[in-house]
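Usage example:
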Amino acid sequence: MAAPALRRTPLYEEHRALGARLVDFAGWEMPVRYVGIKAEHEAVRNEVGLFDVSHMGEVVFRGPEAEEAVQRLVTRDVSRLAVGQAGYAAVCYEDGGTVDDVLVYRRAGDFLIVVNASNREKDIEHFRSHTGDLDVDIIDESDGWGLLALQGPRAAELLQALTQTDLSGIRYYRFVEGELGISPVVLSRTGYTGEDGFEIFARPEDAPAIWRRLIEAGAVPVGLGARDTLRLEAGMCLYGNELDAETTPLEAGIGFAVHLDKEQEFVGQEALLEEKEEGLRKRLVGFKVEGRGIARHDYPVTVGGEPVGLVTSGTQSPTLDEAIGLALVAPEVEDRFEVVIRDRPVPSRAVPLPFYKREKR
Amino acid sequence: MNVPEELSYTKTHEWVKREGEIATVGITDHAQDELGDVVFIELPEEGASFDAGDSFGTIESVKAVSDLYTPVGGEVVEVNGTLNDNPERVNEDPYGGGWMIRLRTSEEGNLLSAEEYQKVLEEESD
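Running the assembly step on the lines above writes:
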């Protein structure tokens, strides 16, 4: 029996026309690169790049108990979000392990939660199974949205020339309804690169024209390869690497998105409170390889030959020109350890995150 | 894809330049294009010995780690050390400055001509 065909976003033909190298990502046929990962990475750091992230999922919570439902499912206290504000959060199992990391948007009449493409079905199943007693509709709107991410120091300048919406009024992690030419869009000042930028929610049928306008205006098409090197430099987690069912958000270093004092109880809260009390079982560290070699996902971490953890993500950083990585290690591990690269222990040292921070303007 | 006439090739996308006893080995233009930006290379020491088909090192792009295979057996007499600090040479000049190792060998090897390698590339792209 043949494997099921890969899914395609509304921008598939644009990627093909640009000669993108396409790969299977979470069952979607996505561009990993167009001209080259390093060049695309540098375009985002220095100018402006454009990503197709339409494969991500959008789930709406609507109804009299929508807020209660969201509060029960996410670690962040969303009562603190204003209308037009987004917040990063984890979704946890009862034992504190992570179901997904998400962005929660408080809209005027409901909530929108953006989830990872790889977790879409799992998340919705989890959402519904924990809110059966509440008066809320949980609607999978994923197929009704195209999503583009415009990122880089020139993103605001480029986008402002194409819209009447005043972008200077949109602060970080805020979003507004606006337009791009004749297309209605939601503009969200969020991103996964460590640069300034906007995520643009559009109707799927409008997405190709919007993509082309942004490219014509000078945005560089950027694939998933550079998306990964950019987010890693910015110290951001990737579900499946730093976060999974066996890793709590506290262990993965995203405790800032976890409000343990949230009055309304959320799934996993008790387990996380317990872990905070008793001490983390493991913790995420950022590191640089000091010897020769590049650390990669699943390479062992040792101290004096004894295994103390695993690399969760690693690469040669295009911006820093150094081998960087994230690892989950035993809590007592200090600054210096080895990463085992093809049977060779290579000295490495822990460094504070993020590896890269954009200049404040 | 650039496939110089005067070189010999393998199905695993290495090229060989034969000058008497010495065989120079690298990866082809197609291989470097597939890999993307090369960020790291691990090459053997001089004096190391390999049989035809052995892995003699590793090449890493941003996203992937791949083995390098020697088309002929022999002893390593020279290694391109410039690739340590400038691995991008493999992308920029795969048949020239991107050469990897030189072996002393008495083997002919089971190699493809430029024309035969072109056919391999055509078949792969189907």
